[in-house]
Model the fold of this input.
Amino acid sequence: MRELVKVWKEPEVLQGKRIQALVAIITTRGCSWFRRGGGCTMCGYNIPRGDVEINGEVLKGELERVASAFGGEELIKIYTSGSFLDPGEVPQEAVEHFVESLGRRAEELGVRPHLLVESRPEYVTEEALEPLISNFSVTVAQGLETSSDVIREESIRKGFRTVDFLRALEVLKRTGAGSKVYLLLKPPFLTEREAIEDVVGSFEFLKDLYVQTISVNPVNVQKGTLVERLYREGKYRPPWLWSLIYVLKVGKAIAGDRRVMSEPSGGGRPRGPHNCFRCDRRVLRAIRDFSYSPDNSLRRLEVDRCVCIRSWRFQTAFSFA
Ligand code: SF4
Ligand SMILES: [Zn+2]
Done:
């Protein structure tokens, strides 16, 4: 049987400082939107596992393991492939138990860690946040994906609207929790150029909102998704890494002091964001350097051009300054 919880440590950046983070991926019943509506067109995280029933007790045990792995790191990132704040996915008593054991451990070590969790906007409520914010500082990451309701609905099938996201932001602001946003680069049915314009438009939209970090997720083709079907039929190409560099540059110029980043999964592979496969490594290195340097400086995105940039330019009619 596969382990239900994966835990490791990695370097991160928090409020402009290099720190150590504890990362945990816990297994839950999966995202409620997947269970209700079949999920988003690019998301393959929710393929059900039949070998164990994930109930509150099991989750308590998983979170207990996270608390005991905590060794005083400044940041704890917890991923569920769904919404940590959804009580149907992570029951309230499991959260409370976790807060208690982590709080005890933190007290012993004399530290106060920062927690990062992910959630769909409908679960961002004061009630759900209360046990977390009364004990730790907290950031909630939301997959807004795009500021366009049409693209979010027609291309991503995300099942919420921009107003829902804005309501959740209000809650985060009121409670003093931090806010991180994911934008999706190149959902299906958009050309490369439209995809770039969509992300740039979303950066503009976020410019004056309560958001401290914006992370761009380029689509990678995951198993069992609509995107995979289109990919197999030759109707979908994952985004170019040049497109990612372009939106990070323009996005950072718009976002100013906020942290802008990207952690592309499957980068440089056919099913992930890629260029010509000859230059991918160094382009990915620059993206990583930009995303994980405390200065988050645009000059880190300067990479030597490769001949394949001509094909990218031809398809998108964009170029770098
Ligand atoms: S992308 Fe997020 S909201 Fe959509 S199905 Fe996956 S986990 Fe659920
Ligand atoms: Zn190239």
